[in-house]
Amino acid sequence: MLLLAPFAFVETVSCQPLKPLVSLFYPRSNGRIGDIAVLPSGQLLFTNYPTRPGRIWAVDKDREVMVYEFYPATQYCYGVAVSPAGEIYFSVSSTGEVFRLFQNGDSTYQIIVFKRSVKNAGPIAFSPNGTLFIAEMIASEGSQSVYKLVPDAAGYLTRSWL
Asked: What is the tens place of the pLDDT at every residue in 51-92?
């Protein structure tokens, strides 16, 4: 044991280096994968960036199932993220918007614009507390930024940038 500070001890143990297990989960020979997210059910979601029209796909039993196709057909879907509550969000870099998908009772989806005015909205991700992080995809001015939307006390995301 090594004394670092009063009453603080560190023990070291020697072991073999850990080797992560890497295995092919899903090969996609008929297209590209832009960004991925995982639903609470364990299903993998992905976007088909940079293919148009932008689509969100799910992997279900070793096959692709289209979840949503974004219109206009000239737009790409870039980032996809799943909130801690299981809601699906995606970004469209060319318009700088983040959208939220709502599932209807008949298993179809509709969307709303969740956030506008994010330059070149690219990858998006949720933290465990529900904070949504949005990264700029293209460094048009020579720098990139990451923005965040923080959940309020009720768990909803506030739409003001901090």
From this structure: 888 899 999 887 889 988 888 888 888 899 998 888 899 988
Tell me, yes or no, whether 3 lies in a domain. no
In a domain, 162, yes or no: no
> How far is residue 154 from each of residues 61, 114, 133, 148, 150, measured CA to CA in Å?
36, 17, 19, 17, 11
Among 72, 39, 45, CA closest to 58:
45
Domain contains 121: yes
- Asked whether residue 156 is assigned to any structural domain, the reply reads no
DSSP state of 75: P
Q: Which range of residues forms the domain containing residue 31?
A: 27-149
Distance CA 76, CA 91 (A): 9
